[in-house]
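Format notes (please read before filing issues)

Several people have asked whether sequences and structure tokens are stored in separate files. They are not. Every record keeps both together, in the order shown below: the sequence lines, then the token lines. Line labels are part of the format and must not be stripped during preprocessing.
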Amino acid sequence: MAISEAQPRHQLLKILGLTFGVAVAVGDMLGSGILRAPSSIAATVPSIGIIMGLWVFGAVHVAITANVFAEMGTALPQSGGAYIYAQRAFGDIGGLIVGWSSWLAFIAGIAAAAISFANFLPLIWPWANDHTVGVALAMLVGLFGANILGLREGRLLQEATSLIKAAMLLLFCVAAVLFVPPSNPVPLPAMAVPLIGWAALVSAYQLVRGAYAGWDTPLFFSEEIVNPGRDIPRAIFIGIAITAVLYIGVNGTLLFALGVKGVASTPLPFTIVVQDFGGIASLLFALTAMITVASCANANIMGGPRIIFSMARDGLLPDFFQSVNRGGSPSGAMLLTALFSAGVTLSGTFNLVFGLIGTMNALGGIVIIVGLFVLRRREPDLPRPYRAFLYPALPVVALVLEAATLVLYSAADTTGILFAIGLCLACVPFALVARRGRIRLGDIAPR
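Then the structure lines:
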């Protein structure tokens, strides 16, 4: 049967599996953060033990939160991610708060990846150094163009780029440990942990948590996965495990080869290590860096439109945004995402948006965790192929961690919490207007 016959206008294709789920999780997490964060963290927290501890704790933190999201994702297997769960538990207002903040995170990720791609290209092609914005926009056109063709094209691109960058980072760790002489060892008495203020720890952990952002991306494709009850939890936890191993390995390798001061001395400590391998290694690093950020951008380009699509399907946005083309791509939602991504890239405001992501992610996490308890009580018979491990104790731990994170982020970033409050308040009239529109049309969504 032809795709055009099997593909209704508002129906996504159900063709994805575990491989894609792992690839999109790893692809979204492994971005420019791991290339740049080690330097900033080493400069902020000059202690090898604390640095490595933060990366390990970051993996544990997201895994505990993922335990909650995995239940929600398998109980409500619809594309749109956290927006779907907040909408089901708290209605339009809760859904809008989480949906808009998640979409903004995708937009910021796309713009930042595009600029990072343009910054790495001059390492291979010096001409590009004077055309950063043009290169960034060209990358966006290429990736959005590939994805607008269809879900199969986006899937192939994501799986290939995620595999390549994960393999190259692993190769870097092995080669550096085997062939690069370690930094001068520090005598044990001198390795006492320096006094580090809470603000420095919070700042460093924001970078760590930001690097792990994207672990939940498989959830945004739930209704497009053939067996969501089985593959969504596997994809999330395998993706977190692979990324954590790479993050801990890369940071350990850099600290082994350069020491804390060496890692902190340059925005890209990788370049110092690969110099020992000659020009070919430097070229490979540049290519790996470009593939890394392009893969991250592709994951965001695929995930973001699913939120807009789901909002439109629930009557919160115009019907145009739930249109699906013959290839299975939500074309209307993808067009809106492309326009906003290009605008943020041109304006350079993605740094401002990125500064708000940690706060908004923590707020969204709290909403979803509370939503788990709400739905367990309100809808006890809802099918749950995956049930949160050690309920209710471990979900409570997740709630405490997210609440503590939000408090610390808010204390360190007043702008972020003010923006969060403003977004929450703005969602109230937006939700009321959307509801009145559905009442007039006689189409009240079941949630």
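For reference, the curators noted about this record: The chain has one domain: 14-436. The CA atoms of residues 47 and 193 lie 6 Å apart.
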